[in-house]
Amino acid sequence: MISRRDTIVGYLVLSLAALISLGPLLGVVILSLGEPGKVGIRIDIAKATNFGNYADVWEKGDFGAAIQTSAIITIVVVVLSVALSIPAGYAFALMNFPGRTAIFALLVLGILMPLESMIVPLYLDMRRFNLDNNYWSVILPQIGFSVAFGAFWMRAFFVQSARSLMEAAWIDGANTWRTLTKVLLPLARPQMLTLAVLFFVWNWNDFLLPLVMLSGSDLQTAPMALVNFEGARRTDFAYLGAASLITIAPVIIVFMLLQRSFTRGILAGSIKE
Amino acid sequence: MSLSSLPVTAGGRPTPSPRRRVPGEARSVAYLYILPAALIYALFVFIPFIHSIYLSFFKGNGVTRMEFVGIDNYIDIVTNPVLRSAFVHAFELIVFYSLIPIAIGLFLASVLHRSRIRGVAFYRTALFLPYVIAPTAIAVIWRWILAPRGPLNSFLEAVGLGALAQPWLGDFTWALPSVGMVGTWVMFGLVLALLLAGVQKIPLELYEAARLDGAGPWMEFRAVTLPGLRYEIVVALVLTVTAALRNFDIIYVMTSGGPGNATVVPSYLVYQQAFKVAQIGAAAAMGTVLIAVIVAANLLIARAGRRDA
User: Fold this and answer.
1) Are the beta carbons of A170 and B23 separated by less than 8 Å?
2) All domains of chain B, ordered by start, with CATH?
3) Confidence of residue B144 (pLDDT cuts 50, 70, 90)
């Protein structure tokens, strides 16, 4: 039986846990509105009125350009990665061909691979072919990592739900492409959305790859702008708070809007089967 | 497949020509579907990975000629105390990223298994938030919280525990646990949300049955909660252990491996050796050992999960 007491304890514990998660972030909101300079280390909600901090940081940290760079890179990566993951997952799930298991295993290995394990030759090769210091030097490797998970994720969906539909469509005379685009994709929308949210969060937050690839250029992503800004003013905490919030705002907005899709992706786990 | 012998489909259209093959039979068109994804993955992930293993047997700066040195770079990782300590630190971080959040999560999940909570979406959003935001921003935020005159020390002084106040990130003893604590904060909400979702799926009848058999809370936990959460625990372990081993951004921003080498971790050393001191081979060897450790850890977790089934 579920007692009233159990439910109240449940709410109390969850509220406390939520407070621990949100507390530091709420603290930063107050911090970011405090007085700029060293005094800003202590937060005082009564004096948290310096909304101009955001405009200052936006300008001094060059965040406008950084957000734009991050947005361009992330949107291209999300769109292309989803678009490439779908046909790959479809083929792995519903078609038989020599080498299927081996190719799939090699691809899935990419889910576990840390960028650190290939960043050195990746950088050397990009530099050799003069691909470094532009958008593509970040976009292409990010797509490479994303499709490893994406093909895996879409395959799991097609295996679970598409076999009989595929056969029915085939009886109706549809070829593999028509079956995918007309029959299966409309059903796969929730899975595609989850994939897009996960890709957005991962690639927006990515730091090491752009740090290495864009180091010799004027381009910087939002996390890079934050770290550069932080390196220049290590004790100016009100400004640092504002800069942190500017950096994470796009991800928080996407996450809030599509929270269900994101949690479904994580809760389903990356290792089902 | 017997479907192919049907003369006419429900829609009244003629049967497809016999040359059409059923799904599941060999199709070479499959390669076309896979090609774009596989090509980009091969060029920008897999081939560089193999190339990195190759480079790990050389010494040099990557620009001039590289000198073949066999497994010297790997021997260095075992014998050089700084390189070796990076892996020791990574394993210590697993305690903070993985074991502490899972222990907290299991405890709370077993306490909460009887309550059916409304408004889960709100709590889930809150609990997931630290996992979603950029680690670079998390590092900046926690550098403020842990600053010598920052909120944590102010709080300790305010409640009369001023003796415990530390220059957290500047202290040789406390720097690594402090960075680890940030990992605990990032991971505990995610793990808790995972385990709560799992525990709500365990039928209450199992708990009733255990109680009728005279099981105390500990037996109930061992016999019902833990087996019921097996899958969620495996997912939590995979996500948190991998994050602990890969941790780069937080170390880079919060401590740069310091003070001294108190917080160096493998991924930070890869970056430092490759891009600060131009030891390409050493960096590649470090990266290769790191991926070996990550794959081994994940295989171990997967196997443990299966054995408990």
Assistant:
1) yes
2) 80-307 (1.10.3720.10)
3) very high
